[in-house]
Amino acid sequence: MTMGSKDGRRSGTDGISRRAFLQGAGALAAAAVVPRHVLGGRGFTAPSDTLNLAVIGTGGRGKNLIQGVLRYDDARVIAIADVTDKADYSRFYYRGESGRLPVTKLVEEHYAAKKADGSYGGCKAYIDFRELLEKEKALDAVMIATPDHIHAVVSLAAIRLGRHVYCEKPLAHAIEEVRKVTEEARRAKVATQMGQQGNSGEGIRQACEWIWDGAIGSVREVHAWSRTGGWAEGYTARPGDLPPVPPGIDWELWLGPARHRPYHPAYAPYNWRGWWDFGTGQIGDMGCHNIDPAFAALKLRHPLTAEGVSTKLNSETTPYGSILHFTFPAREDMPPVKLTWYDGGLFPPRPEEFKPGQKFDGNGILFVGEKGKLLMDGWSQNPRLLPEDRMAGYKQPPKTLPRVADHDRAWLDACKGGPPASSNFDYSGALAELVLLGNVALRTGEKLWWDGPAMKAANAPGADRFIRVAYREGWSL
Which terminal residue of the chain has fewer beta carbons within 10 Å of its beta carbon, N or C? Predict the structure, then answer.
């Protein structure tokens, strides 16, 4: 919050099938989905009703989520939870002040007229998300924007009460957690969405349609990258000084299931992403955004192998820069493909189609096909063929995939019985597992032969401690 075979290889039949992509992924192609008001299920809200929402984790991102849903009259925020009274984000890109008190004020001011006429009962603020979930009986859905290490326990607590769930990427802190959340959400038939906003945009749909139409031919090579990071720069071990916990922070609850350690501002409110016990590094921050077009357009699921190299590793902080390689088997009519991830200012080789002086943007993805290349900016935006003057003569195929208004609206509609949101957990869970597998490969220092369904690298038993979770006493899945 402010808080297979004997050698470990498998055949290509383990790739995601078109039917699974259209139905399980939900979304980018949800043409034949049965509405939830037909399916029923716990937590169902009729389309005519107003959704009662809670937001758990009201730091910079949680505040943004609230500002997004406040645009809609058929959703209302009735409760929030955060372990921090208030936090100053002026040094970070979120800017301003966040936390339980300023965000409660923001919500109350938005609904002031409705509260005055008696149509809104106010926004209850809690320190402990468990108390919120226990007491707010009218709650329909939960949005989660805590640090990565507590995503799973909050998501599972809400799902087990039949609440719809929106959770920020990368969905959880470990692969085992992601799998548990995905499976329980499916059984509970709740509407889900991971916070990867580009998945609801036009760019990812265009990329799918163009690639499926043969615009660049068969794709055997993909490169994705991000220049984010630096959260724990200068640290290779825990800080030696022990400043007191500032007033207004419940530090034990902020730690949640993570191993105990004393408070330090190097961890909270913002830089937790750079610490292994709380965050998932650069691929965890941006991989779900920038790998997403390949995952969708190439119908990827479990890779065959994962390996990587990075700047110097230690047991406490994520590396400054890394390069990760994943290989995938053939899927349907698509050939095997190699996906490479770069971060920390590292980029793929410069395409020969680039104009003199042209450089990669700080975030993006490049598809290399047998008949050409397709380049996109970060967050699945701005697809274009290379060289870019090809676009003038390119006849785009029909728009066959459903379009949505925006990421928040797609999830709210799913909560009210509409088609699954495009990044529902059946789709995004597998993507989150891939991202987290990259960190497992880095931390083991081995090439992993990956058995995705079993969540196991048979050639590297030592990987299990990074795949599965070990919570401290009092916390469990």
Answer: C
Minimal CA–CA distance to 440: which of 425, 470, 462?
Answer: 462
Sort strands 456-457 and 448-451 into parallel, antiparallel or unpaired: antiparallel
What letters, b where the CB count within 10 A reaches 16 and e where it falls short, cover 203-241?
bbbbbbbbbbeebbeebbebbbbbbbbebbeebeeeeee
Kindly report, residue by residue over 397-456, the tens digit of the pLDDT.
999 999 999 999 999 999 999 999 999 999 999 999 999 999 999 999 999 999 999 999
pTM: 0.91
pLDDT at 442: 97
Domains and CATH numbers, the chain: 28-198+406-423 (3.40.50.720), 200-232+273-402+435-457 (3.30.360.10)
| Size of the chain, expressed as the number of residues it contains | 477
Q: What is the pLDDT of residues 231-272, one digit of tens each?
A: 998 999 999 999 999 999 999 999 999 999 999 999 999 899
DSSP for 218-268 reads -EEEEEEEE----TTTT-SS--S--PPPPTTB-HHHHHTTSPP----TTTT
The structure tokens listed for 120 are: 């809104």
Count of C-beta atoms within a 10 Å radius of residue 161 = 17
Of 57, 476, 103, 53, residue with least CA distance to 254? 57
Q: Order the strands of the 219-226 sheet from edge to edge.
A: 381-386, 372-377, 363-369, 219-226, 337-343, 322-328, 305-310, 448-451, 456-457
Contact assessment for residue 287 and residue 34, using Cβ atoms and an 8 Å cutoff: no
